Amino acid sequence: MNKVILMGRLTRDPEVRYTQTNNTLVATFSLAVNRRFVRQGEERQADFINIVAWGKQGEFCSKYFKKGQQVGIIGRIQTRNWEDDKGQKHYVTEVIAEEAYFAEGRRDSAGDMGNDNFENTFGTEMAGGNSEFEITPSDDLPF
């Protein structure tokens, strides 16, 4: 099984390209994902993970995701390699996005989080996923 779930902040706006053969949209971006543990006396470390989103998923990411925004990505890890013009071999590992979600509420025009703009990363369907439930601001949560 090859499944990865990530939550992090975009390090840059998604970059959009189209394939030469069939003009398919592909969006690429990088997520800064904090490591779970922090060593005492050290600053929190982050991993920078390359994300690739194809077709409709790529269109969604390029349209709505911006640098600094916190997002959730569900996908699979893929590795590939190629040889450049100078004969140098290159290797890359990236996550192919199968689902993409907002991981924080919408910001108002001033950049502040609004109370009436309630969204939950995995409670509200955004792109490519089917949520089994939806949490609304009026729900009584047990925590």
The CATH topology comes to OB fold (Dihydrolipoamide Acetyltransferase, E2P)
Count of distinct structural domains: 1
Would you tell me the structural class of the helices and strands? mainly beta
Assigned CATH superfamily: Nucleic acid-binding proteins
Beta-strand percentage range? 35-45%
The total of helices stands at 1
Mean pLDDT: 81
Distance between the termini: 32 Å
Number of strands: 6
The SSE string, one letter per element, is: EEEEHEE
What's the CATH architecture? Answer: Beta Barrel
User: How is the main sheet built?
Assistant: 5 strands, mixed, barrel
- Cross-sheet strand order for the largest sheet: 1-3-4-6-5
Write up what this structure looks like:
This protein is mainly beta. The protein is 7% helix and 41% strand. The chain has a 5-stranded mixed β-barrel. A hairpin with a 5-residue loop joins β5 and β6 (89-102).
